[in-house]
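User: I'm new to structure prediction. If I give you an amino acid sequence, what do you actually give back? Let's try with this one:
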Amino acid sequence: MFKASFNRSAWNAFTSLTLSFCCVIGLGLVDGRTASAATAVVAPSNVATSSLEGMPDFSRITRLYGAAVVNISVNGMRQVSTTASADAGSPGSDADQMQLFLRRFQDQFGATGATMQVPVHTLASGFIVSSDGLILTNAHVVADASEVIVKLTDRREFRAKVLGTDPKTDIAVLKIDATHLPIVAIGKPADLQVGQWVLAIGSPYGFENTVTVGVVSAKGRSLPGDSVVPFIQTDAAVNPGNSGGPLFNTQGEVIGINSEIYSHTGAFQGLSFAIPIDLAQRVAQQIVATGHAEHGLLGVAAQEVNQTLADAFKLDKPMGALVTDVVKGSAGATAGVHVGDIITQVDGKPVELAGDLSSLLTMATPGQHITLQVWRDGKTVQLAAILGDAGKAKEASMATPSASPPQGQLGMVLRPLLPGERNVIDLTSGLLVESVSGLSTDAGVQVGDLLLAINGQPVSTLLQVRSAVFGAATKKSLALLIQRDTEKIYLPLRLPDR
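Assistant: Good question. You get back a string of structure tokens that encode the predicted 3D arrangement of the chain. For your 498 residues, that looks like this:
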């Protein structure tokens, strides 16, 4: 509990200042000339004025739609091992603690591969979207569930059936056997503006139907990892237990599902992320109809474009998704997407970040026709693609660029691949990096890497490398396509000033 100290002298000083200001305004109202002068200073005739809106009526939103927010209790079993950190639950969970115990046991007695089933009990949130008992929540809420109990605000409890989940977007649909239930109103995330007020309702730490408020901090936020959701970022307090609960706008409409927080402690630190409701609805409709969700697959891997790469590819500014790999036989390959292309638009929608590409493809469905705008060889190219099914083929992982811009002198010892080496790694071009120094070291090139292309041009001989570097004499940087193990990535290499 925070206890504020009361400073009498400071309060007196503040009161005096406040009263003095009021007196000035009061004198202005009595003295017409002073009032005119004050008006000229406060609102000159050439400056437009506007009235400020008052605070939203959060109590009204809670009163109208709070009853449609439910509390979810999940019981189940989870496989825990000492070697797979992904098996651990959230910090402090039973599964997480058991994994730590097993790891200590292994370290002490030399055991290997210890695994066991541990009970899982989760408290979370959800909200009713149809009066006959359809409920939306997060997929991670009901993972490993053997029993899901939904509690309404009138204290009634129902055993829920999980109709389906979509881990890719973290959406799950539940069904309870009830009718004439209160439901939420659905809004349009596209109309949401950064800085607008939002309200979250959920059960943080099991405290049922807790209301918190904040503002929209950002839209279309991409998070690290495998997430493909264009999150709504807010500073509304969201804690463990809020997962799956609704995020309302000031009109009382749900515009998102609270899903994740960014925290070093596991508790709220001002960064909360919600799944846009239009994406959730599209996934939910598929789950209700078929029991699962489908997502479009282009079959490319891409990375962010920083300033150095933008210079290398002659882009006006860093933007788009730089293609680092194209899966053979994929929709992207059939459409003519090349490694080194920078995808800047999908169906006319801009791709500012690499995460935008994944988000747009996730919103699409298998078999959907899309138009890609790509930047290739200093000009714009239009490509048409028919998306594949992400459920039937694993999409290439998104690569990560080097963390810092390279500096120093260029240095790299390369040799052609031997025939046997080419057969093993199934490559027809590329050069093996035997040593690095100077600029190449700072760029992130490592011994054992394979240099596949420079500025989008494949290289398989030392002469081609020299030609590519010589041809870049007027450029500020090079874009090196490197294969490291099974991953392909572009490394930006800034050339020294000439």
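You can read the tokens as a compact description of the fold. Here is one thing that stands out. Residues 164 and 290 are 9 Å apart (CA to CA).
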